[in-house]
């Protein structure tokens, strides 16, 4: 137990200066079994149930570090007589997003194993799939392998297949920047003096006006997400009002990502973010022929991709209403 305290203390030291939003905890349960543990044992039981718990810290979107405690079960085998096997683990976790809600991950690190009345240090490897339920909760399917669990008789290895649940602290506090229309001061309209003529009807005066280009602030997205928040949908109302009032107005929507992931993957995500805004405009009655969308991937960042805050700012959509002329009646 002293070694467990050392591992947990080291992990807490790594997270002590970090935001609570990057810390997560989890638990898992499933089946465990040993390989090459029954070479010299007549009565052998090398399968059991396993449970475990872990604490992690997300350093970047693709890299975390985890410490855990696994109870692998009780076994009867060479060097074991209905004895328990436990492991204290420490390993980095590398995440590879597959979709917005599913990630493939792998771990490779070390483990301190108690095998009956024996103790040993071993290598640990694991692979699995993680499914995001919401911003705070995810579910894992994982296979874990612990190599060369030594005792005085055999060199065995431990295996486990588990289903786990993870809780991430603070993610529900992440605020998405709303789309805000940048107001420009209108150009003064020319003053037209009408000459009053007795018994003469004054016809309305038609003038040509120019609508100046308008740009909207960017809308931030979660990592690997293309979904608009309800607040962002509401903030598109000003844009819809302008497009409805000026039938000649068109809109250009450009999506962007941060530098996480491959360039080809980021290009697809940026296009889908622009398409999310376009679909919302169409749902509010804007004709699709007036909308132009494009994706720029990770190009043209507005902040540094080396920080979490900078990457969040770069996950955005920029909206522009180009300049156009229209007829106005005075």
UniProtKB/TrEMBL annotation:
Q: What is its main location?
A: membrane
**Stretches with biased composition (Basic and acidic residues):** 306-318
Q: Where in the cell is it found?
A: Cell outer membrane
Gene3D superfamilies assigned to the protein according to its UniProt record, in alphabetical order? 2.40.160.20, OmpA-like domain
Q: Which residues are the signal sequence here?
A: 1-21
Q: How does it sit in the membrane?
A: Multi-pass membrane protein
Transport as UniProt keyword: yes
- Record keywords: Transport included? yes
What is one Pfam family matched by this protein? OmpA
OmpA-like domain spans which residues?
209-325
Q: Which UniProt keywords apply?
A: Cell outer membrane, Ion transport, Membrane, Porin, Signal, Transmembrane, Transmembrane beta strand, Transport
The segment annotated Disordered runs over: 301-321
State the family it belongs to: Belongs to the outer membrane OOP (TC 1.B.6) superfamily. OmpA family.
PANTHER family, from UniProt?
LIPOPROTEIN YIAD-RELATED, STATOR ELEMENT OF FLAGELLAR MOTOR COMPLEX
Spell out the protein name for this chain. Answer: OmpA-like domain-containing protein
This protein's species is Aliivibrio logei 5S-186
